[in-house]
Amino acid sequence: MEIYLIKIIIAHLIGDFFLQPTSWVKDKERKKLKSGKLYLHVLVHVALIFIIFMSFNVWKIALSIGILHLIIDALKSILQTRKNARILFFIDQFFHFGSIVLVWHIFYKAYINVSFINETQVWLLIAGAMFLSLPTSIIMKVIIAKWLPESDDESPKSLQNAGKYIGILERVLIFVFILTNHFEAVGFLLAAKSIFRFGDLKEAHDLKLTEYVLIGTLLSFGIAIIVSLAMMGLVMH
C-alpha cells in the first residue's frame, strides 16, 4: 500500500515545487483568495493525481487532495505576512503532508509503521545528533572563548550566527558519514571547508584569527568524530 502514498507525495512535490511558477506565488500573496492562480494551482494538483495514478478511478482521492490543498493554501494566504512568511512555509508543507497521509489512510486503510521509535538504537542516534548540534556549539564556545580575537569594525561582517550553523551542519554530516561507513567523505568535507575558509584567512593576513579558526575547526571535527564512533559502537553492540 505504501506505493500509493509515494505516488500522492510525488504528485504534491511536482505540483508545489515544479509546476508552481514564482509569478503564481506572488499573485497568491498579493490577491489572496481573489487570486485565480490559487485555484489553478489546486486544479494542477488534482490533475496530477490522475496522471500519476494513470486512472480516473481515483477521483475521490484527487477531489479530497484538491479540497484539503485549497483549504491549507487559502489559510496560508490569509495569515501570511512578510514577518511570518518563512515559518508559514514550513507549517504549510507540514499540513500538506499530513493531509496526504490522512487521505492515504482513509482510502487505503493503511498505516505507517512507527514501531522503530521504541528501538534503543533510534534513541541513541537522536541523542548523538542532538548533542552534536547546540550543546557542542556551547561547549566549544566555552573552550575557545579565551582565544576569541578582538573584533575589527573595518573587517567584513559575516552572516548572523553563520559560524554556529555551519558548525552544526558539518558535525551532523560527519555523524551521518561515519554511521554509514563513508569515512572518506569526512576528509572531503574537511578539505572543502579548508579551501573556502582558509583562503579568506590567508587574504586577511591575521595569524591570531587563523589560529582561532583552526582550533575551532579541529575541535568541531574531533568532537564529531569521537561522538560518531561512540554512537556507532553502541548501536552495533
From TrEMBL:
Superkingdom of this protein's organism: Bacteria
Keyword tags: Membrane, Transmembrane, Transmembrane helix
Spans through the membrane: 61-79, 86-107, 122-144, 165-192, 212-235
Protein name listed in UniProt: DUF3307 domain-containing protein
